[in-house]
Amino acid sequence: MAINDLAISALGHYAGLLVIELDTQEADPSGIPPAPLSVTATDALAGHLAKDLNHILDGIEQLGLILPGALYDQTEILQPGFPLIEALADLYRRSLQGGFTPSVMALGSDSGYLPVAAIDPQRRPGSGPLLLLPFCFVGPREALGRVARIMEDRLLQNGEVSPATREAVQQAFGLTALNLSFATIGDLCALLRVQLESHDLLPLWDLLEQAWFARPGVRSATLEGGNRFLVEGDHAHTLFYTFDDWAQFGPGRTLSVAKLGEGYQRWARLQRQYAIALDAYGLEVRWVLANPQLEEKLATAAGDAAKVAMREIPCLSGDYLVEAIFQNDREAPEQQMTITHHADPELGTLAYTVRSLDAGDQLLRLEHHYPLRPQGINVIIDRLMQRCAEQGTERQVLHPGRLLYSETGRSLRSATVADVPGAARAVH
Length: 428
Fold this sequence. Notes:
Layout: H1 3-9, E1 12-22, H2 39-56, E2 64-68, H3 74-77, H4 83-95, E3 104-107, E4 130-139, H5 141-158, H6 163-173, E5 177-184, H7 185-198, H8 202-212, E6 219-222, E7 228-232, E8 235-240, H9 243-248, H10 260-280, E9 284-289, H11 292-300, H12 304-311, E10 320-327, E11 336-344, E12 348-357, E13 363-371, H13 376-391, E14 394-398, E15 405-406, E16 411-412, E17 425-427
Parallel strand pairs: 2-3, 8-9, 11-14
Antiparallel strand pairs: 1-4, 1-5, 2-4, 6-7, 7-8, 10-13, 11-12, 12-13, 14-17, 15-16
Helix pairs in contact: 2-6, 7-8
């Protein structure tokens, strides 16, 4: 490696953000963020931002600055290892020829997409009302350290953009901003922490922080409802309980029968909240089906020991899980099928209980189908319809509007017509 290459690879980097809070009266909350700016528009906007930052940070002449002409939501910025920021810094270093010379590098688009996939915004519907434009300083570590300290000390408090920059941002992206200010990645993390804490989700913050900042070891969280999550690196392990397992040997085993429905719904609510958030912020969520032996191990295990215990069980794959309760060895065709839709008004579908009979009204199968991911609901429905079509099975779908379970067996049960309000009965 040449001397200049060694010097360039030794350059440090430090990131910041232009935080754009949209006026919800003007913006469509379900809309998508604006498309990336052209090269010309990004160059112009970069000039405004550089001028503001130079003033706020007491001079940035010794540092290079790189920024994309694009807006992102916070889940695109807050990912394990902050890959978008690393990609910006790497692009700046690779652009250097013959040594480091501070300059402003603006990344624009000629076709609605940025030239590097790693920094191309996802533009997902409903990304507002907070949109972010990241930027990254690159330069010698001494100069970078001075600017980084000032950024952490004063950027959030004194980082309001100038009127000229505010106008330039709004015109360039075609939006109306309620507030515009500069912040650091740490500021964004602190804001999210406060939000999660206000919603009693602080353990989620601990799990996310573990992954974002590549903390060593394993971080675990056991929630009040019995939900369990382990995070190591950029992946998380979590236990999945069917209702029967949850009620018989899992976290619900100590609850009275009367509280089982409410308790499982609380567990499912937290499980979905955590799994969706971990996935959105860049972690691979691996589901492990609970069993009594694993439950016993985890009762006394922590950290690496808990991780080892979970890894001994193969992870669930696919979008749904079938729990087979009874299967008759006779290969008679299914003549009648009753499908019970267990649901919660807030959570939606929790499970489907499938009970099928042969021509002699003998029980052939009793199964519970659980969606593991949102798309699993449609997969379950499609497969059951196909199964009925192939065998000419008459099916009845019952919607009791709640979770039905046997009080004696602490297990899901199939509905009868008497369990269902008249308007919710359907024969397909």
